[in-house]
């Protein structure tokens, strides 16, 4: 009986994981989540909520950006990447970009957010739609002046 319960729990976790990872497959959704995380993070930073701002910019937004980069790059090396955690092994597959991202994580929230946006625009220009460009411009003009 105990083994049956364990199997059922494993199946539930597997189903939940499949649902979670499927939400990572839509570029448009990932870009929108990335932008939203940056806006929320910068807003919280501006209100003095620094710990929460770090979480939104340097963790949540970063994770969406790495998912986008990994998903949209046809490198054979992607095999060594972790399909549940885009942070794992990233710098092994993308050493220069990994070093750049590691350096920006040590910067203040606004500068880190700006550099994350610059990476998105540089690495995935073909995935950015007009509505995303408008949102990105608003972030630069309103939040990162």
Summary, kept brief:
The protein has 145 residues and is an all-alpha fold. It has helices at residues 2-22, 27-46, 50-71, 90-93, 95-104, 109-123, 130-143.
Whole-angstrom Rg = 17 Å
* Tally of DSSP helical segments: 7
Give the SSE string: HHHHHHH
Q: Indicate the structural class.
A: mainly alpha
Largest sheet: none
Which consecutive residue ranges, at least 5 long each, have pLDDT under 50?
none
Q: What spatial form do the alpha-carbon principal axes imply?
A: globular
What is the number of beta strands?
0
Describe this structure in words.
With 145 residues, the chain is mostly helical. It has 7 helices and no strands. Helix 2 runs antiparallel to helix 6 and helix 2 (27-46) runs parallel beside helix 7 (130-143). It starts with a helix and ends with a helix. The mean pLDDT is 84.
What descriptors fit this protein?
about 140 residues, mainly alpha, 7 helices, about 75% helix, about 0% strand
Write the layout of secondary structure elements.
Layout: H1 2-22, H2 27-46, H3 50-71, H4 90-93, H5 95-104, H6 109-123, H7 130-143
Helix pairs in contact: 2-3, 2-6, 2-7, 3-6
């Amino acid at each position: 009986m105990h083994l049956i319960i364990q199997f059922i729990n494993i199946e539930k976790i597997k189903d939940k994981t499949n649902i979670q990872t499927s939400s990572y497959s839509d570029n448009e959704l990932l870009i929108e989540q990335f932008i939203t995380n940056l806006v929320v993070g910068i807003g919280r930073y501006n209100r003095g909520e620094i710990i929460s701002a770090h979480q939104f910019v340097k963790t949540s937004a970063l994770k969406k950006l790495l998912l986008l980069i990994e998903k949209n790059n046809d490198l054979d090396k992607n095999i060594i990447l972790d399909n549940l955690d885009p942070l794992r092994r990233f710098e092994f597959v993308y050493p220069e970009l990994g070093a750049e991202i590691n350096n920006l994580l040590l910067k203040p929230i606004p500068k880190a957010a700006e550099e994350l946006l610059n990476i998105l625009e540089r690495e995935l220009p073909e995935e950015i739609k007009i509505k995303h460009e408008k949102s990105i411009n608003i972030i630069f003009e309103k939040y990162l002046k």
